[in-house]
Amino acid sequence: MTDRMSEGVPGVGELAVDTATDHKGKVVRRIGSVVLMAALVGGHVWRTHADRVRPLTREETRAHVVTRRKTGRRTR
């Protein structure tokens, strides 16, 4: 279950892009117009403004999964 807001900002737990920095992450909290996001890799948390956040596209999600799988294979 997510807390998707009416203006289309991804809800808590959804993957998103901070368009100000082009960083991809997971929405971990929303406080008014502030969105807290955690990096997909490494867990670094940052805050951004809700109007700078958009959902990850299917292509972006797929590319991330492929990259993580390749990285995982190389380190084993």
Q: Give the helix level as a range of percent.
A: 10-25%
Mean pLDDT across the residues is 85
Beta-strand percent range:
35-45%
Provide the gyration radius in Å.
Answer: 13 Å
Low-confidence stretches: 1-6
> Ends: how far apart?
34 Å
Structural shape = globular
Q: Give the number of DSSP strands.
A: 5
Q: Which H/E pattern describes the elements?
A: EEEEEH
Q: Tally the helices: what do you get? A: 1
Commentary on this structure:
With 76 residues, the protein is of the alpha+beta class. Helices cover 24% and strands 36% of the residues. The protein has one helix at residues 58-75; strands spanning 15-18, 23-31, 34-39, 45-49, 53-55.
Task: Walk me through the topology.
Layout: E1 15-18, E2 23-31, E3 34-39, E4 45-49, E5 53-55, H1 58-75
Antiparallel strand pairs: 1-2, 1-5, 2-3, 3-4
Key words describing this protein structure:
globular; alpha+beta; disordered N terminus; 1 helix; single chain
Describe, in short, the structure shown:
By secondary structure, this protein is of the alpha+beta class. 24% of the residues lie in helices and 36% in strands.
